[in-house]
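Project outcomes to date are best conveyed with an example. Our students and postdoctoral researchers have been running inverse folding experiments weekly, and each run begins with a structure described purely in tokens. The record below, which covers 499 residues, was selected by the lab manager from last quarter's runs and is presented without edits.
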């Protein structure tokens, strides 16, 4: 990549620009931050605003190179070996300092010591590493993953594993015996005892899991509008982690729409509003690759009117690049859990997850995938690029429907203004969540489905305020009801008249 192309890129995890050589302290922070993370490049002689080559004097180059080498040698521990090169661009000189990802982390500023001198890269800045981050860096230096660390507070025989054992048997046709647990490295021998690893605790149903890993959960929310605020629905998934991906996926399916777009020959073509294969893969990745050593952080799934976001604790693995989805990349943070997930079918094939995401996105040109690292986390967003246009069309449709409904449903509106009957209550339930008849009855506090409820549901459907989710198979066991645009406008008219 030539210099002109490089300087057009934003500063970030692997890239930094300086017009002049920074202070010794700032340079040392950048060097150890890059070494502790994914490696990176520092370009000296690049003006930031506007981004252009300001250049260095030719007779300064050797002096600056020696200064950089001395700072690295004197102030960085363990040893860092930077690659320093000179680049000439239209008569101007730039120094490039390339730092490889270190093989012996944590790297720190010698004079400050490990606790106060370990820095890591967060976005385009260098941050002092927390105690948890330093511990994780030490494990990386020893090639030990957090999930493989032994848990000493409870014997594996005393862990509640019933759900995991049943699930494992269902998926693999194999019983979870001591030998299987050993083979999967879910238990290890230590001083004559067989002890569980963190991975087994995370997979268990035991109370100790919620005590030791209270944030090993998924928080799901459907918000009203395009910013966090009013909840339409929310769910906390705090089961053993082998079950979390499917439950999170089902939450999303409940809150995104599916419609018949067209027919291919005689076959109906159902299309979700988001690429669900890609979403499924991102959820799987979030659970298997999250950093379980980070306390106080859980996976978050947020659904808005214009986007869907999945945020996982822990930065993207340094060897994985979301910009190169077709490259067949494969790496794992949790080296014990990953093979277990593969046995369970949660991971299908090593290295094909990003490819599946890329392929599915090709079928959704109106959805843009973006990713970023907010703090020590990784967030993937699926964004509707035509949301504004859809909103304008919906508003026009609602205005037309409003005039139409005021005339057509005048009697119903008047009745509902006087008191909120079962009619409106059912409509509100379906608005909040696509529901089956039984679900509506439960939400109303009915022990069984009453004849009156059947009558109200049929009336709402005849007025086209609600509709079947599977219209071509009315008696399907999976049949549910969803609110229509007419239903949404009806509730809005009711609210406006009451106000």
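After processing, the design step wrote out the following sequence:
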């Amino acid at each position: 990549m030539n210099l002109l192309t490089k300087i057009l890129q934003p500063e970030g995890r692997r890239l930094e620009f300086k017009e002049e050589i920074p202070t010794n302290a700032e340079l040392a922070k950048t060097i150890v931050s890059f070494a502790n993370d994914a490696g990176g490049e520092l370009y000296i002689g690049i003006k930031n605003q506007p981004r252009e080559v300001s250049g260095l004097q030719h007779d300064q180059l050797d002096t600056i190179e020696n200064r950089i080498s001395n700072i690295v040698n004197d102030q960085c521990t363990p040893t860092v070996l930077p690659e320093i090169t000179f680049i000439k661009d239209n008569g101007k000189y730039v120094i490039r300092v390339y730092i490889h990802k270190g093989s012996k982390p944590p790297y720190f500023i010698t004079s400050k010591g490990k606790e106060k001198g370990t820095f890591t890269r967060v976005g385009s800045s260098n941050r002092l590493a927390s105690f948890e981050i330093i511990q994780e860096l030490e494990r990386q230096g020893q090639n030990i993953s957090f999930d493989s660390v032994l848990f000493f507070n409870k014997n594996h025989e005393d862990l509640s594993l019933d759900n995991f054992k049943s699930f494992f048997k269902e998926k693999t046709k194999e019983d979870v015996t001591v030998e299987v647990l050993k083979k999967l490295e879910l238990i290890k021998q230590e001083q004559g005892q067989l002890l569980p690893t963190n991975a087994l605790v995370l997979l268990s149903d035991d109370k100790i899991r919620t005590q030791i890993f209270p944030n090993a959960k998924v928080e799901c929310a459907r918000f009203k509008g395009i910013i966090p605020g009013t909840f339409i629905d929310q769910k906390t998934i705090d089961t053993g982690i082998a079950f979390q991906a499917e439950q999170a996926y089902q939450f999303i399916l409940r809150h995104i729409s599916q419609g018949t777009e067209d027919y291919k020959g005689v076959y109906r073509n159902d299309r979700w509003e988001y690429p669900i294969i890609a979403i499924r893969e991102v959820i799987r990745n979030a659970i298997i690759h999250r950093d379980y050593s980070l306390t106080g952080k859980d996976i978050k799934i947020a659904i808005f009117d214009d986007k869907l976001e999945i945020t996982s604790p822990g930065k993207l693995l340094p060897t994985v690049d979301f910009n190169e989805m077709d490259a067949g990349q494969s790496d794992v943070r949790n080296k014990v859990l990953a093979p277990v997930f593969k046995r369970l079918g949660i991971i299908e094939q090593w290295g094909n997850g990003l490819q599946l995401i890329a392929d599915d996105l090709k079928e959704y040109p109106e959805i843009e995938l973006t990713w970023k690292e907010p703090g020590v986390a990784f967030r993937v967003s699926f964004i509707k690029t035509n949301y504004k246009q859809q909103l304008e069309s919906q508003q026009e449709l609602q205005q037309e429907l409003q005039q139409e409904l005021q005339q057509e449903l005048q009697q119903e509106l008047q009745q509902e203004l006087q008191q909120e009957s079962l009619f409106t209550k059912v409509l509100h339930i379906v608005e909040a969540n696509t529901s089956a008849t039984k679900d509506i009855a439960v939400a109303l506090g009915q022990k069984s489905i009453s004849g009156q409820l059947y009558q109200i549901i049929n009336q709402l459907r005849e007025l086209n305020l609600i509709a079947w989710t599977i219209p071509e198979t009315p008696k399907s066991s999976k049949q549910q009801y969803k609110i229509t645009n007419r239903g949404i406008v009806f509730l809005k008219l009711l609210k406006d008249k009451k106000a």
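Confidence is low (pLDDT under 50) at residues 262-268. The CA atoms of residues 394 and 485 lie 8 Å apart. The training component of this project remains on track.
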